Amino acid sequence: MSFDLRANATIIATIAAGIAAVAVITIFDPPGTIGTSAAFPLCINGHPTRRPPNPTYGGLAPRHGFVRDHRCPLGLGCPDTALNVFYQSCDRFELEHGHYVCVEGEAAKKDDVEWQTIQDMCAGRITAQAARQLPYFQPGYWASDGGTHR
What we know:
Blueprint: E1 10-14, E2 22-26, E3 41-44, E4 47-48, E5 66-70, E6 85-89, E7 92-96, E8 99-104, H1 106-122, H2 128-132
Antiparallel strand pairs: 1-2, 2-3, 3-4, 5-6, 7-8
């Protein structure tokens, strides 16, 4: 397993009481780069952690029929800023754990891509830096963001 140890990820491996190594990936970016807003563990033991609680979505207000979504996911260490948030269409919402979640439409498709990419990063199949550069997480890719993909 190899990891990119450049400016985007720090790997801390610990061995305690004869138990297998525990790897924690935390994002620390230089000022002005995409992950500046938060430093939190993204992966533990090769699995994604929960995202930071109560994202602000860059202060953007909710809109009926849309979800506020981070272009580049928080789970890849990207910021919770207005420049990284856009309104994404959703065809059907369901109530899950006290909040509405998009289960059908463009936002649901992007969520699937995000989750798979975050799992791949945590498993060491892609670096955080490479994941953040994928076209799915760039401005203008999804139709709701001016692109052609739905």
